[in-house]
Amino acid sequence: MVDKTPSLLTWKFITRILQHFEEGVVILDPEGEITVINSAARSLLKLEKLTSIKNVNDLPKELQEIWENRYRHNNTKRFLHNFDVEVNIVPGFGDGVAMIMKKRSSDLLHGQEKLINRELQAILDSSFDGIFITDGKGITLRVNEKCEIFYGISRDQLIGRHVKELEKEGVFSPSATAMAIEKRKNISVVQTTANGRNLLVQANIIWDENGEIYRVICSSKDITELSHLKNRFSQNHPLINDSQLSLDENGNTNGSLVAKSPVMKKLLNFASRVAQTESTVLLLGETGVGKGEIARYIHKNSRRSNGPFLMVNCGAIPDTLMESEIFGYDGGAFTGANKQGKIGFMELADGGTLFLDEIGELPLSLQVKLLHVLQDGTFTRIGGREYIRTDVRIIAATNQNLEELVRIGKFRKDLYYRLNVIPITIPPLRERPEDVIPLLISYLERTIEKNGRSKEFSRDVLSLLSKYNWPGNIRELQNFVEWMYVAAEDDVIDISCLPPAIYDRFRFNSNESPIVINRIIPLKEALQFVEQELIKKAQSVTTSTYQIAELLKVNQSTVVRKLNKIKSPDKEITLNRISNFSNNAN
């Protein structure tokens, strides 16, 4: 007779019982070695063909991540989307862990599908571009909120309709989707909508495995403002080249206006309120923080949004030309002047916004004329006798200390107070680290769009760059992205693609010797101390023990063991001990 008392249930017997469980069971010891993996787990994880499964490295990547973060996941439930499996994580012996897994139920799958649909729609609705998706026949399947704005009708009036039908009704014309299906290739067209908008539409085809059109995805950008500006200038101001406009080709803001951090959200909220007024704005902040983007944001959210937005960099125009560029001149005003004269930015911006960047570089002689515009809304061209009235909002910006310029006599005090009505200081990127990764991704998307080849950042690169202090702010980040995109030979931008100087900074933290000896201590303790410091340093720039192992060129299990040793107070070599030894030696 078999004795069924708990004392006889040996580990080997328990293991045999677990092999008959319908749920998958995987048990790992504190070193990451697998002590149990039953047949159900092998089946769920598609590991039947493997004859030897010894440690965590033999398991799928999702389970390796659970193992790495087991302290955080203990007594929680995770989903393995690649296997359609849910996992309960149970603390094991010591630092070990047990993972109990089973196939997800149909109700759960339905719930997950609804959640994914909601998330997909939320992602589409967060886009600044219109997203219009049809099937391979041209039947509308999904649109985002921007499309409702662009076309002036609700998504319920769009979904289920054929694009030819919508085109016939004048909702938009031409239909980029219909053209793409007919020509069986990706196309780009300028589209006109029923409410008078001009859209730049890119239609991209998704093919199925049989070579048939499965979906057509159209992304559209509103270029109405740019079209109006071009028409305005071509009809009324032939002397001005379109290149002086600060809008890019698609009327975008170049993607640098990202606000995930609380400080930027608060700033944009304030800028939105400022946009509803006619007050003069002075933007302050370091070079490259995005002052131009904030100015554009204020303009687009103001009542002047249908008027021009012009940008003048006062530091980029020679002093001798600045007056004629900003205020214009009459014919024959000076030798070499155009006989027809020239209209300056102050007139061109009539009804809109004039952004004067680097205002601290404006010569004193022109500061008087600008002050006159701010006080009376009038000015005179060079050689002109009549005062010209202009309805323009001035937004100025500088990275200089204007109060100091006033003190040394390089900037007029009265103009300073006229400009400093609503000062807005834009924080540097290092003070809003939450914006770094969204900015990196945003600029990478723009680089992909420009160059055509899709690439993505590795998690390691995003982790490292999120810790960088960005002295050059957004402009430096933008250059980083372009460098890494070019440097990446395959589709993944990893650590090796970092600019050399930055790579060395992360790897060695400086060009100086990595070890500085201040005093003599026993060699054994010195080795232990250096080992601890190296692990801590690597830990500060990585997100997993595998990355630490890669940096230090050791096994991951070695890193885990040494980290556990560091956490143990009785084994830790502390600075105090070293200091005490040094004091005793002295």
Automatic annotation (TrEMBL):
It comes from the Bacteria. The keyword Transcription regulation applies. The keyword ATP-binding applies. One of its GO terms (molecular function) is ATP binding. Residues 116-166 form the PAS domain. Keywords: ATP-binding, DNA-binding, Nucleotide-binding, Transcription, Transcription regulation. SUPFAM superfamilies: P-loop containing nucleoside triphosphate hydrolases (SSF52540), PYP-like sensor domain (PAS domain) (SSF55785). Residues 183-235 form the PAC domain. GO terms for biological process: regulation of DNA-templated transcription. PROSITE patterns: PAC (PS50113), PAS (PS50112), SIGMA54_INTERACT_1 (PS00675), SIGMA54_INTERACT_2 (PS00676), SIGMA54_INTERACT_3 (PS00688), SIGMA54_INTERACT_4 (PS50045). Pfam families: AAA_lid_14 (PF25601), PAS_8 (PF13188), PAS_9 (PF13426), Sigma54_activat (PF00158). Residues 257-486 form the Sigma-54 factor interaction domain. This is RNA polymerase subunit sigma-54. It comes from Polycladomyces abyssicola.
